[in-house]
Amino acid sequence: MTPEIANTRLSDDAFAAERRGVLQSWPTGAAVDFGAGVARQQSLPESKRFSAALAQAHAEGRTLLQPRAGVALLREHTALMNGLSPHCDLLPTTVDAYTRLNRYEDAQTGIDRSRAVGTSLLNGFPAVNHGVDGCATLVDAVDKPIQVRHGTPDARLLAEITLSAGFSSYEGGGISYNIPYAKTVPLQDSIRHWQYCDRLVGRYEEHGIRINREPFGPLTGTLVPPFVSHVVAIVEGLLALEQGVRCLTLGYGQAGNMVQDIAAMRSLRKLAHHYFQDAGYDDYALSTVFHQWMGGFPEDEAQATAVICLGALAARQARVTKIIVKTPHEASGVPTLEANIAGLRATRQMVNMIADQARPDSADIAEEAEIIEAEVHAVMRRIYRLGRGDVAQGIVLAFEQGVMDVPFAPAQANAGSLIPVRDNRGAVRIFDPGNVPLPKDVLAFHRDKIGERAASEGREASFDMVVDDVRAISASKLIGRPAA
Amino acid sequence: MTPEIANTRLSDDAFAAERRGVLQSWPTGAAVDFGAGVARQQSLPESKRFSAALAQAHAEGRTLLQPRAGVALLREHTALMNGLSPHCDLLPTTVDAYTRLNRYEDAQTGIDRSRAVGTSLLNGFPAVNHGVDGCATLVDAVDKPIQVRHGTPDARLLAEITLSAGFSSYEGGGISYNIPYAKTVPLQDSIRHWQYCDRLVGRYEEHGIRINREPFGPLTGTLVPPFVSHVVAIVEGLLALEQGVRCLTLGYGQAGNMVQDIAAMRSLRKLAHHYFQDAGYDDYALSTVFHQWMGGFPEDEAQATAVICLGALAARQARVTKIIVKTPHEASGVPTLEANIAGLRATRQMVNMIADQARPDSADIAEEAEIIEAEVHAVMRRIYRLGRGDVAQGIVLAFEQGVMDVPFAPAQANAGSLIPVRDNRGAVRIFDPGNVPLPKDVLAFHRDKIGERAASEGREASFDMVVDDVRAISASKLIGRPAA
Amino acid sequence: MEQGYKVILGVIGSDCHVVGNRILDRALSDAGIKVVNLGVMVSQEEFVTAAVGEGADAILVSSIYGHGEIDCAGMRERCEERGAGDIVLYAGGNLVIGKKDWKEVEALFLDMGYDRVFRPSVNLAEMIAGLRRDIDLRRVPQLGHNSAAFDTGAPFLDAR
Amino acid sequence: MEQGYKVILGVIGSDCHVVGNRILDRALSDAGIKVVNLGVMVSQEEFVTAAVGEGADAILVSSIYGHGEIDCAGMRERCEERGAGDIVLYAGGNLVIGKKDWKEVEALFLDMGYDRVFRPSVNLAEMIAGLRRDIDLRRVPQLGHNSAAFDTGAPFLDAR
Ligand code: B12
Ligand code: B12
């Protein structure tokens, strides 16, 4: 069945009609006014514009740092942002998990109970409940560009509220904020809802306001082969460009093998330009973001800091524009301000120490990049074929048929047949491609690499090996070898 | 004037005569008995033999971790060792600074006052004062190989006591424990005293007891060009081999630029084998040790951990046998057990994560290794010429004439005319060679590299730049750039 | 005597973290325990309905994302309402917001009526051994032949 | 009015750490202060003899290696014995063993008779400005025209 979706720009009428419903879906929507939002964005100083910070860093070859952080109450959240600000370049506002699922009443319960007990009981900042005024107060109170970071399949109201309050960057996408974050949301619904968000950003762009958009790169953060997240990033980029977005940051979550991670960042830039330009776009700004290790962390804070440092190193060696920074509390829970600062300081120190050092280059990196490119091309080709040229239709069908498949994803829209495992050097390889149409030689390459590991461990590759890999970093290893 | 020293094996008679004086120099010397020492060493289980642990790690391609630690009192020191043991592979016993200068009475004051106030007022373990019995109690109480780490120009009595108590590795050397650690000790004296120590180790070796010997690689830890520490390591290796030492670990202190650090470790192994075999030795075991950053640390613990992690990474990438691990307290003071464990855990995590990853190799690394080799050959050639074939005489004359020259050394025996500075990528270069006879093309290479940096910073290279470099890591940078 | 063990497994609330759930499923199944895995984003209602419908011996609730304190409260009461007040009830994961003192977290969830509470670093093999014993004990509540093993609380179930 | 400043600089005891000493020498000299640098491993006797012999305005004692508590005690008394009881006496570095509470360390050394005590992270430019003022104050002890700047102790001299 052909999905009811197409990669075409939403018409002004359709958008307007939809908009009314969105703004009525929760009381705080009433305060949103597009003209006022534009005026407010115009009034922001350059120092609070995300796109400007990214452009400058890109031009100067610098790498910016951004933490994750969000708490339930406005005052506490503002204090948190201002505590982080001296240690980072870009501010986040991580949104709580109820808001992500549009459960604003539960979010309200969380706010109320947090007020009562005097500590945040929410895992993020419930921006919709705080409304335009609350968010604007926040934006006014901070001194750096600030972004909405979440995981929301239907993020339309959140976008309306936060952008009109002066946030200048918006994370997410119809695939990357569904597959890893949702269970039963149909993919075409989340894509359609994100077309709305992108169109909203496009409208700001048309009014001279550049809002940065960042598809969520790491997906499930767990043994995601680079080509998988690259395809998502490229497709979400294409969808965003079509709606008028012009400032994109594409992301990737550290896989742990440095050669593969550097190759991944290199190929991501190249592939994105390739597909964007093929689709006829040439007036966009592209930057990159590297997420420090997104899988399970070690509980010990010193060990966690080492994981953070390896990420900082790979990111800087790959010359990314931005790093999303983890904290030594990662394995335990939402970090304190202090833990967040520790992560930022360690990252800054590492980045600074290697900032001017030679950018690694080697035959391994080139080979790895070629593999990734071959994989992405194979899958993109099939997506376009499935969608008969329409990437929105294509991606929905691709997920339906397991042509695209994200490991360890909770979404029913995802097949879950692709099985990754590490090779003998720790690179993420394809143990079972499921239905993903990877070229034969590429699959043979993966098989050989996995074979090397199996031989060196004296055991067959199997799902046990995968489980060992998932738990390895927490157990102080990259590769889940059998106990010696 | 020809120095009264020669690289020849001490005769048994001369050794015996000297020995009487050494053992009488402080009351605890009386308890030393060589036969008893051999018997005790023989009784040690394999698991406490340093040489065995190194040989096994070398064979398996593993990298061992060793902390630094020492406190005034025996019971506290034993507890410290047992606290560290689960987190490391090799134990240290860092000796206090009074003992290093043979000021055993001051050490005794330190012990007594430490007892009185209930906390260590000494910066290490006063092994001579604790005597053979005290040290033997310690060795018995621990479960890993244990080494004496110090900085003692005349370490003869310390060696007699600790080796006869069961320590199975002994750090130091006549150059590396004089130039960075002393002020007025003539170089030929310290070399002569270390010939004694090496001869003592040689005698154990002849009795079937292999004691590991480790020249102190990092010297002053401050902008030391690799060739400088390599020459010292090679010369001390040659001096030790001549006295019968057969198990050597040569060291190097992280300079901060990864290409240079990896090249340094690679060339160190190669050069050592070259000179040792040229001198007719082929029956020795050689391993390597990498010291995490030995210069001033950042005060912040997260930043310090990042410095530690960069060292761990470079060390493992260079496939060294052993890493000497720093702690997040480095900038502040002698670390607590907890801080030491944190350093070890971070290091272990980093080493484990990259253990199986590809060993970096590149044209840069090869070029850097070639430069280092050319430098070492040029200086070694001159040393041999000055000593008319005798490396002991040669090195004394070389220091006298500034042919060998260690940056930032306190010793009057050192010229201090060589001035290092970082280049635009952070590698340590020669700004002024002083009297060190480096080849013209090598000097031109350094000049060009420094020129690149000067141009990029828009200032002339000068001692100010050097000062900026010295303080850079503490200020979160590798290179001391002018404030932007 | 040879009786099977059947458990309901799931991640409660709006929580999407599925990796631990998959690993728990695998570990329990490998140990011969029958697992009814409800996956992520499971409501209390769904847990209890499944438990009653399947006649399960235990419910293993995961909460990873931090809202456990809100999402997990009232579960025991809901079981009681549905006549399963006696079922073995476990909770585990990153149960509250932030890095909190474990003793407090454990007390909070024991108070809510969970029989045992687990941190992320739990040793699964030991947890499963304990689970069997807990289920056995409920089956023959009078016997209590090896109840001594449980007198001291659950620290041995935890890796740290 | 234009009077020079002359200080004795050195690292006390058995301490070999010379890097900070070289940097202090450079910073003081660059600021136009005459430095008599005794280098490392300087005894109290050597410090005081040099101060008296050179007619110095201040002694700047470094202790980096941790034995400062033992090595630095009694320095003020020794100055007094030699008729220089009034000299400006500074101490700085990693003054004690381990990472200790700074307030305690500072109090310990102020008690010993040091006028100011500095941690490694001291801002040298500010320290030098303060040094000039301290010397000026000793020179015209009655005047005290800008002594207010010193009422609050020395925290402003410290980078942290
Ligand atoms: C991967 C990951 C993600 C992925 C999840 C992908 C997916 N769909 O599974 C993504 C990126 C999507 C994600 C999103 C979010 N995450 Co998240 N995530 C993680 C991370 C890094 C690893 C989790 C993991 O997979 N671990 C590996 C598995 C094997 O371990 P496990 O989950 O702990 O499960 C084991 C044990 O806990 C135990 N166990 C679990 N349940 C039970 C139950 C019983 C009965 C027993 C006996 C044992 C048991 O056994 C399991 C198997 O060994 C953790 C931090 C960490 N642990 O390092 C944060 C973490 C869990 N996330 C967190 C948060 C807050 C979120 C978000 C809300 C975003 C945000 N605000 O930062 C969203 C969630 C939105 C939502 N609706 O749920 C927080 C939770 C904070 C807290 N509790 O205080 C954590 C701890 C990070 C942090 N320190 O802030 N996350
Ligand atoms: C390099 C170094 C060495 C080199 C020294 C080479 C040399 N000859 O100079 C070597 C390897 C030889 C060495 C040896 C030892 N070291 Co060491 N070393 C260091 C290290 C890493 C850096 C020191 C440095 O050069 N810093 C850079 C300079 C610019 O900074 P600075 O020395 O702090 O000086 C500045 C300030 O302190 C201040 N300042 C200093 N004095 C004064 C005085 C006044 C009046 C003022 C205003 C300011 C001021 O201004 C200076 C310039 O900015 C430090 C740790 C660190 N800081 O990271 C440990 C450290 C100083 N060493 C230490 C120790 C204990 C030793 C040893 C005893 C070995 C051991 N047990 O570990 C031996 C010393 C033997 C001896 N006889 O002294 C300890 C001291 C512990 C303590 N106080 O609790 C430290 C802190 C490491 C640690 N955390 O354990 N060391």
UniProtKB/TrEMBL annotation, chains A, B:
Keywords: Cobalamin, Cobalt, Isomerase
Domain of life: Bacteria
EC code(s) of this entry: 5.4.99.1
Stretch forming the signal peptide: none
Molecular function as annotated in GO: methylaspartate mutase activity
Protein residues bound to adenosylcob(III)alamin: G70, N123, P180, F297, K326, E330
Cofactor(s), names only, from the UniProt record: adenosylcob(III)alamin
Pathway: Amino-acid degradation; L-glutamate degradation via mesaconate pathway; acetate and pyruvate from L-glutamate: step 1/4
InterPro entries: Cbl-dep_enz_cat, Glu_mut_E, Glu_mut_E_C_dom_sf
Catalytic reaction(s) noted: (2S,3S)-3-methyl-L-aspartate = L-glutamate
Positions that bind L-glutamate: R68, R100, R149, H150, E171, Y177, Y181
HAMAP family cross-referenced by the UniProt entry: Me_Asp_mutase_E (MF_01923)
NCBIfam families linked to this entry: MthylAspMut_E
Quaternary state and interactors: Heterotetramer composed of 2 epsilon subunits (GlmE) and 2 sigma subunits (GlmS). GlmE exists as a homodimer and GlmS as a monomer.
Similarity remark: Belongs to the methylaspartate mutase GlmE subunit family.
Function: Catalyzes the carbon skeleton rearrangement of L-glutamate to L-threo-3-methylaspartate ((2S,3S)-3-methylaspartate).
Protein name in UniProt: Glutamate mutase epsilon subunit
Gene transcribed to yield this protein: glmE
Automatic annotation (TrEMBL), chains C, D:
EC number in record: 5.4.99.1
A Pfam cross-reference name: B12-binding
Pathway assignment: Amino-acid degradation; L-glutamate degradation via mesaconate pathway; acetate and pyruvate from L-glutamate: step 1/4
GO terms of molecular function: methylaspartate mutase activity
Keyword Hydrolase: no
Gene3D superfamilies referenced in this protein's UniProt entry, alphabetically: Cobalamin-binding domain (3.40.50.280)
Presence of the UniProt keyword Ligase in the record: no
Top-level EC class: isomerase
Family, per entry: Belongs to the methylaspartate mutase GlmS subunit family.
Name used for this protein in its record: Glutamate mutase sigma subunit
Species the sequence originates in: Leisingera daeponensis
